[in-house]
Amino acid sequence: MEKSEVIKNPYEVVVLMHPDASLQDQKDLFQKNKSIIQGFKGTIASLETWGKRTLANPIGKTKKAIYFHSTFEAQPAAIAELERTMRINDKVLRFMHTKLDSRVSLAKFMENFKRGLQESAHREREKEAKAQARRAAAAQRSSED
User: Both 97 and 27 in a single domain?
Assistant: First the structure.
């Protein structure tokens, strides 16, 4: 390996922003993150907004957050800088960076990730349909009594 060759790893990040964060706050955060990643010779592969969702566990008195998911490639030092800037941003509630398998392309990772989300949503819909059928059957039985 030559000295000029830069080691870049694939990463994924999920960011939870305060539900009161304005669209400009969101854009500012991701512009800053993009400039940090590019400063470390990295590239952003995807950035998705999952919207405002209810938190599984409240953070302080906050019960909802705006969710973002992103994949990118960067030098390992970029992660420390990204996390430092997100810790000082009061609009960021939580974040988690995960190093991905470098043998799988980010495009293939996103394809598998989206397939997993679809399968999970499908299972959830089936589970809800069965629960509704049980409730309807129980209501039918109770009305017959």
Answer: yes
